[in-house]
TrEMBL record:
GO terms for molecular function: oxidoreductase activity. Keywords: Oxidoreductase. It comes from Kitasatospora acidiphila. Belongs to the short-chain dehydrogenases/reductases (SDR) family. This is 3-oxoacyl-ACP reductase FabG.
Length: 246
């Protein structure tokens, strides 16, 4: 268990899938949670209701992270509504694939805006509010360590950028007692990559455990890094991938 009582967390892309599981788990550990969504207002409300029904505190923030100012605005709104910010979880992102020749400049800009630029800007804004013990946790991808398929150049590019960003944050913010880490999921059963999808058997076979993970597996890792157990872990990535990169 990770005691997060009295902490405030912001989870981007928290209305469904991995983001929703993270928001619920941090709330279960005692944190007040803000979560962002783009269009899935109903999903965001359901996550908030679930947290409140369990006695927690949560707010949903509409934020289109393709807009340059949206990430920082979400941070500022979290601080206004919940009083502070201790934990930033950069979860929002796209699962993108397709032949290199078919990736348009517009698609490249859109993916990098959410997967990289919004992470940078959210961290920049969050650092203005965090004190000793702050946590910046970004959700990466197993493609950071292994790209066994063609057609994933854009996905691998966007998620791999988090490695340098996280190491830089760790060095710059470490003297203030703020850590920066990445969690790299493998095949996780969500609506974006269902365990019964067309490519599920191939993905399953690439793991050492021979199975998909669940969103709660990622949430458990995030909760650990956000809590006391993560105090001496920074500038690195934790693979939660069933041995995909073994």
């Amino acid at each position: 268990m990770s005691d997060l009582t009295g902490k405030v967390a912001l989870v981007t892309g928290g209305s469904r899938g991995i983001g929703a599981a993270i928001a619920r788990r941090l709330a279960d550990e005692g944190a007040a949670v803000a979560l962002t969504y783009v269009q899935a207002a109903d999903g965001a409300r359901q996550v908030v209701k679930r947290i409140e029904a369990a006695g927690g505190t949560a707010v949903a923030i509409q934020a289109d992270l393709t807009r340059p100012n949206a990430a920082a605005e979400a941070v500022e709104q979290t601080v206004r509504e919940l009083g502070r910010l201790d934990i930033l979880v950069n979860n929002a992102g796209f699962l993108t694939y397709g032949p290199l020749a078919e990736v348009s400049a517009e698609e490249l800009d859109r993916v990098l805006a959410v997967d990289v630029r919004s992470v940078f800007l959210a961290a920049q804004a969050a650092a203005n509010h965090m004190t000793d013990g702050g946590r910046i946790i970004s959700i990466g991808s197993c493609f950071n360590g292994r790209v066994p398929f063609p057609n994933f150049v854009l996905q691998a590019t966007a998620k791999s950028a988090l490695i340098g960003l996280t190491k830089g944050l760790a060095r710059e913010l470490g003297p203030r007692g703020i850590t920066a880490t990445i969690v790299d999921p493998g095949p996780i059963d969500t609506d974006m990559n269902p365990a019964d999808g067309d490519s599920a058997e191939v993905q399953r076979d690439l793991t050492a455990l021979g199975q998909y993970g669940e969103a709660d597996d990622i949430a458990n890792a995030v909760a650990y890094l956000a809590g006391p157990g993560g105090r001496y872990i920074t500038g690195t990535a934790l693979a939660v991938d069933g041995g995909y990169t073994a």
